[in-house]
Specification:
single chain; 12 strands; alpha/beta; binds pyridoxal-5'-phosphate; 3-stranded antiparallel β-sheet
């Protein structure tokens, strides 16, 4: 990474962990087709299955229930097959990969803190005739708010509906136990935990019949055709192993995030930090700056060498109104003026001090002009 940049955008993507890079360099260049019958193919198969096992350990799922995909987006698309379900219910704060896959889905509201309103979910479920699917994310990418997944599964099961959860942001940051929650499907992605981009997985419980999106050679037990991205899978597996080995890392990151929020509040007592009163990922802060659009803030931070995001990064590189903050119904300014700071294992205290100085500088400069 560029040594002069301060990277505070771990929810967008993380740096590749050094252990993952070393592992990848070790196998780079070998012919790795796990479907080949010869010795090199068999060795590729062993590597692929080792990665599957490493991931399985991190999320507490049977390895055979893990289907490799090209990332969280594809996993969400594979899970949400519109033809298969009579009704689909999603939350209003889902990632675009869920919202776009589940067109015409019914939407459950969130409260002012960004938590799904369970009574409303129950009402929507009661109206379903036929097989329903609920898709609610485990943790939100913009605010870090953690949803009550176990309760959601309990409610949905009363109505015979399956539950999928996009756990892309939750994995690696909080303990995840796929089996214990009773989820039917769960999406995960490597590049949020120190692995490479372009590799993820859909975890599928035994009783779920999947309709493949990609058909062809029948890889991944016919559920996702195409020669597996073995380098990606090796990187994903290694990243999962490193996360398990560094289990204390999240407490350190949370302490740093809390220190940042405390210090910022001391310097600017009326600062509005979203969802502070509910269960949140320990690495994420969503902060509203009065009078300054998120887009202007992001550019201002970037000029000072700080990389962060305005909520969801748009694929066009432009900043837009945050549908997540809008759904929380907390006024107009938060939807346009919220930035997301997301810390990670390499974040330091001097970085947060510099971040606060820059935050105050951008605020004062912009508000003086008004
Ligand atoms: N779901 C959530 C909550 C995310 O934050 C992201 C990535 O930003 C995705 C899905 C998409 O994952 P991928 O980039 O692996 O396709």
């Amino acid at each position: 990474m560029d040594n002069t940049s301060i990277y505070l955008d771990y929810n967008a993507t993380t740096p590749l962990r050094p252990e993952v890079k070393a592992e990848l360099l070790d196998v780079l260049g070998e012919p790795n087709n796990p479907s080949s019958i010869h010795s090199l193919g068999r060795s590729a198969r062993r590597r692929l299955e080792k990665s599957r096992n490493q991931i399985a350990k991190l999320i507490n799922a049977p390895p055979e229930n893990i289907i490799f995909t090209s990332g969280g987006t594809e996993a969400n698309n594979l899970a949400i097959n519109r033809e298969q379900y009579s009704d689909i219910i999603v939350s209003s704060i889902e990632h675009e990969a869920v919202l776009a896959a589940a067109v015409n889905a019914k939407k459950v509201r969130v409260n002012n803190e960004g938590v799904v309103v369970l009574s409303e979910l129950e009402n929507l479920l009661a109206d379903i005739n036929g097989q329903g699917l609920v898709s609610i994310m485990w943790a939100n990418n913009e605010t870090g708010v953690i949803q009550p997944i176990k309760e959601i599964v309990e409610i949905a099961s009363k109505y015979g509906a399956l539950v999928h959860s996009d756990a892309v942001q939750a994995v690696g940051k909080i303990p995840i136990n796929f089996v214990e929650t009773g989820l039917s499907m769960m999406s995960v992605s490597a590049h949020k935990i120190g692995g490479p981009t372009g590799i993820g997985a859909l975890v599928v419980a035994d009783n779920v019949v999947l309709k493949p999106v990609l058909v062809g050679g029948g890889q991944e037990k016919g559920r996702r055709s195409g020669t597996e991205n073995i380098l990606g899978a090796i990187g994903f597996g290694k990243a999962a192993e490193v996360v398990i080995q560094n289990s204390g890392e999240n407490t350190k990151v949370k302490n740093l995030r809390d220190l940042f929020e405390t210090k910022l509040s001391q310097h600017f007592p009326r600062v509005n930090i979203l969802s502070q009163n509910v269960s949140r990922l320990g690495n994420t802060s969503a902060i509203v700056m009065p009078g300054v659009l998120a887009e202007t803030q992001v550019m201002g931070f970037d000029l000072d060498g700080i990389c962060l995001s305005a909520g969801a990064a748009c694929s066009s590189g432009k900043v837009k109104r945050s549908h997540v903050v809008e759904a929380m119904n907390i006024g107009d300014e938060p939807a346009t003026n919220t930035i997301r700071v997301s810390f990670g294992w390499d974040s330091t205290e001097p970085e947060i001090d510099f971040l606060i100085d820059t935050w105050l500088k951008i605020y004062e400069r912009a508000n003086k002009k008004i």
